[in-house]
Amino acid sequence: MESMDDLRVTECTRCPALVDSRSRIVNGTGPEDADVLFVGEGPGANEDEQGEPFVGRSGSVLDDQLRIVGLERANVRITNCVRCRPPENRDPTTDELENCRGYLECEIDRLDPDVIVTLGKVPSEHLLGRSVAVTKEAGTLEDVRIEGTPRRVLICVHPAATLYDRSQEETFAAAIERAAELADVDGSESGQSRLDGF
Ligand code: URA
Q: Atom of ligand 1 at shortest distance to CA of 58?
C-alpha cells in the first residue's frame, strides 16, 4: 500500500475513474486518539473542493447533532470509505471500496476507537459485511472483527437522509445520542458542566 504517514494518503492511483473525477484526496480529520470514529461513504463536491470530510450540508447536520449531544467535531474523527469523489456523486463501486479499504483499516487500527459510527448504507454494509436496512437498524450496535480485532459498530442513517425525509431526524438524533453514551460523553454532566457548580 502507498504510505500513510499521519493517516494521510498523499498519493494513490488505484481507481482510474476516481483519479479522473477528484480534485484531491480527502483524508480523515480529527484527533488520532478520538473515542468516536464516524465513517461516511465518500467525498461530495464540497469535500472534494475543501479537502475535508462532511463540510457541506450533511456536515452541518452532523455538526449540529454532535453539539447537541456534547460531542464536538474537533474531538471526534471523521472519515470516509473512499477518499476520492466518485463522478456524479454515484456510490463507490465494490472495487473502489476494496481499493480504499486498507487505508480505512489502518485508520481504525491506529485510532482504536470505542465506537465506529457508520453514516448510511454504504459504510454500514462495507464494515459489517452484510446487507443493512439502515433506517430500520439505525441505533443498533454490532460487534464485528476488522482485521482480526473486535470492533463496536453503531449503525446510523446518513445525515443527508434527514434533509430529504424529516421523519429521519429523530432516527439520526437517537443514533448520535447513543454514540455519545458509548463514548461516555454526557453533555449535562461533562467535566466542564460539573466544574460550573464550583
Ligand atoms: N457524504 C459522505 O458520505 N461523506 C462526506 O464526506 C460528505 C458527504
A: 8
Rounded distance between C-alpha atoms, residue 141 and residue 37, angstroms: 14
pLDDT, average across residues 3-32: 93
Ligand 1 pocket test: pick from 25, 54, 79 the residue with the most ligand atoms within 8 Å of its Cβ. Answer: 54
d(CA 50, CA 152): 30
d(CA 114, CA 127) in angstroms, rounded, equals 15
57-68 vs 168-182: helix axis angle to the nearest 10? Answer: 50
Does any ligand 1 atom lie closer than 6 A to the CB of residue 70? no
Which ligand 1 atom lies nearest to the CA of residue 46? 7
Domains of the chain, each with CATH number or no CATH = 3-185 (3.40.470.10)
- Whose cell is 453503531? That residue is 154
60: its cell numbers: 452541518
pTM of this structure: 0.92
30 CB within 6 A, ligand 1? no
- Note the pLDDT tens digit of each residue in 98-138: 999 999 999 999 999 999 999 999 999 999 999 999 999 99
**Average pLDDT, integer, range 29-42:** 97
All residues at 6 or more sequence positions from 174 whose CB lies less than 8 Å from its CB, including other chains: 138, 139
CB distance 153 to 119 below 8 Å: no
Tell me the three cell numbers of residue 62: 452532523
Q: What is the pLDDT of residue 85?
A: 98
